[in-house]
Amino acid sequence: MSGITDLDALLQTMEPDLVDGSFVYACVPAEELAGYLFRKPIGMFQEAEGVTLIVPAEAAEGLSASPPMRLITLTVHSSLEAVGLTGAFAAALTREGISANVVAAYHHDHIFVPERDAERALEALRALSRSAREKGEG
């Protein structure tokens, strides 16, 4: 299954879910990656400077890491070819002054926001979905 591509359908049916726990971003040398896998990263990305790991905050001891972030998963199965979803939720969060670090996976989009802004971000995303549903009904 390839996921939903229609922006209106995505916005109307997205259910933002605030995942338990806090996460951080850290960068480790690519040639040493195997030695860091015990930290149970939920995401990794290879860059020229090293491998960025997204790990539970409690697993980051001893690493130079970002401030703690919370994870919001949009539980709609969005297609990797969908156009506009990232822009729509980024705009909603921008209006609230909330930074967003987005990871698109096969089934869902995952948004990392500063820990202090998590509840406001969740409400902004819920409001975006409500607004799309109301627009679709009207």
TL;DR of this structure?
With 138 residues, this protein is α+β, with helices and mostly antiparallel strands.
How many structural domains can be distinguished in the coordinates?
2
- Roughly what percent helix? 25-40%
Which regions have little confidence, pLDDT < 50, spanning 5+ residues?
none
Head-to-tail CA distance between termini:
30 Å
CATH superfamily of the largest domain: VC0802-like
Order of helices and strands: HEEEEEHEEH
> What is the CATH topology of the largest domain?
VC0802-like
Query: Roughly what fraction of the amino acids lie in strands?
Result: 25-35%
Return the structural class.
Answer: alpha+beta
What CATH architecture of the largest domain do you see? 2-Layer Sandwich
Q: How many β strands by DSSP?
A: 7
Shape: elongated
Largest sheet: 4 strands, antiparallel
CATH first level of the largest domain: which class?
Answer: Alpha Beta
